[in-house]
Amino acid sequence: CRFPGSRSCSPLSNGGSGSADHCVGAGGCRRMKRSYRPDRATSVRMARVRQKGTDIEVAVARTLRSLKLHYRKNVRALPGSPDFANRSSKWAIFVHGCFWHHHARCRKATIPKSNTDFWIDKFRANRLRDRRALVQLKQHGYQAITVWECEEDRIREKLHKIFEAGGIKPL
Predict the structure, then answer these.
(1) Residue range 18-42: mean pLDDT, rounded
(2) Which candidate, 153, 158, 154, places its Cα nearest to that of 143?
(3) Which secondary structure element, helix H or strand E, spans residue 144, and what is its range?
(4) Angle (nearest 5°) at CA 125 between 86 and 28
(5) pLDDT tens for residues 87-117?
(6) Residues in Cβ contact with 31 at an 8 Å cutoff, skipping those fewer than 6 apart
(7) What is the pTM of this model?
(8) How far is the C-alpha of 133 from the C-alpha of 41, rounded, in Å?
(9) N or C: less crowded end of the chain, CB within 10 Å?
(10) Angstrom distance (rounded) from CA 27 to CA 29
(11) More confident position, 112 or 162
């Protein structure tokens, strides 16, 4: 930055260009990372990634219905907005994609080759947010688990684990 000792920058302090987007307030003047612009093919591919109604979510919903358990989907009133929750029985289920939540030791949890620093930061922030949501739910007395995309064949086993721990008897 051309103003390393500056306490703050005004829009005119950087040579009159009218842009001080490298200034980070009272902490001093730092150059911001340049934003990454993906190519058209990447944008189209990423736009097709679904956030709700994924195959694993449908499989979890099917399993919950087969166990005759009642639930609400995407409960925004609870920390982390669990994908499935029952507030009266105090249980919550998060369904995570292995790529987006960077499932440890999973072959689907790859790091893209372009803009690697951005992706590493994003995955770290996602994992931290997920951990925080689980802790907050447990503080509120909820039994909470995470079902990963790669664990589709173990859904029933994982659900039994949460219900047995919470004293809930699936039918």
Answers:
(1) 53
(2) 158
(3) strand 143-148
(4) 135
(5) 998 999 999 988 878 888 888 888 888 888 9
(6) 1, 22
(7) 0.68
(8) 34
(9) C
(10) 7
(11) 112
